[in-house]
Amino acid sequence: MLVSSVLFIATGIVAAQTADSADNASTEAAMKMIGAGLALGLTGIGTGMSQGQIGAAAVGMLAEDKDRFTHALIFTALPETIVLFGFLAMFLL
Fold this sequence. Notes:
Layout: H1 2-16, H2 25-64, H3 69-77, H4 80-92
């Protein structure tokens, strides 16, 4: 949380700079790339953590009742939308 807050502040500072400062162009591009990488990387980590717990629960649910396969599949696929949002944010930066 602290790292993301610092990164958002740093990105805001970089975006607030004027376009006529040519020496900071590489710094601005680097901050954009770091922000894009963090947008995708942190969403991937969060999705992996949630899918691990959901997957274990889905396997337990399937062990008790085989007719619940579609529910297990849907519950396992839902956290993937978080990565899609991170992927979208990566391109918006």
